[in-house]
Specification:
With 255 residues, the chain is an all-alpha fold. It is built from ten helices and no strands.
């Protein structure tokens, strides 16, 4: 289960015009249109900032998502093509014309619950994709996590982690909590704060698919190019996540 995206072949930086770029920007979920993108690029170029900085800022720091790699490739081809025109000082003409047909967006469905059994790798992958693609569903599950597990979060707040370590542990515990809520219709009870402070709790039996997901996420945090976790911080975060996962698994109602 890899979170990485494969590199696209035959990538050509080419601006196809405002109607095409406007349609692609709309699909990507940004409020910017071609004119505002051009204004941002001209200002960034004048300030000496690179495209690697200005283009991600168009999406508020989040990676745009599409139904196909082809649409994503086409968006970045157009953005980088427009950037090249700005860098070269060439005139950019926005001509009127029809927008490309907008493909119908398919709603991401939550995975089929695993109850009364255990989650497998296919369920975990489906749950992760649902959390990535369905903003309303993710917000609802995040609110449930904060409301039900406020005591657990209080212990995490006081655990002495760095900002990076805290962010990794909190986000991962949210994802695991959300996956269990999606797969166990009766829901979860609140976890006692002592669960994160009890030595040995991290070795409690937990479904392999959930353990593997947590291990992969922690490995990626250790290898992060910008803010990698130190070995000491990784060890602290791993212990807290493992204890939290075991406690959440035990908190299933009506099991």
């Amino acid at each position: 289960m890899s979170r990485s995206r494969s590199k696209q072949m035959d990538f050509v930086r080419h601006f196809e015009g405002a109607p095409v770029l406007d349609g692609l920007l709309e699909l990507a979920g940004t409020s910017h249109d071609s004119l505002t993108v051009l204004a941002h690029m001209r200002q960034a170029h004048a300030e000496g900032r690179p495209s690697q900085e200005v283009i991600p800022s168009l999406f508020g720091g989040r990676e745009p998502r599409f139904e196909s790699p082809e649409l994503a490739r086409r968006l970045f081809q157009n953005l980088l093509g427009l950037w090249d025109l700005v860098q070269e000082g060439k005139q950019v003409r926005f001509e009127d014309g029809p927008r490309p047909p907008r493909p119908k967006k398919q709603k991401t469905e939550p995975p089929t619950p695993f109850a009364p059994g255990e989650p497998d790798t296919a369920f975990v992958e489906g749950a992760w994709r649902y959390l990535e693609d369905d903003e309303k569903g993710r917000t609802r599950l995040h609110d449930a996590f904060e409301n039900k597990q406020d005591a657990l979060l209080g212990v995490l707040d006081a655990a002495g982690l760095t900002d990076e370590g805290y962010g990794v542990a909190r986000h991962l515990l949210f994802e695991l909590h959300a996956m269990l809520e999606l797969g166990w219709p009766q829901g979860l009870a609140s976890v006692a704060p002592a669960a994160l402070e009890t030595p040995g709790m991290e070795t409690s039996p937990v479904p392999t698919a959930l353990t593997a997901y947590a291990d992969e996420a922690l490995f990626e945090a250790e290898q992060d190019e910008e803010h990698p976790l130190s070995p000491e911080e990784l060890a602290k975060a791993r212990t807290l996540v493992k204890r939290g996962l075991a406690a959440l698994w035990s908190a299933r109602k009506g099991k």
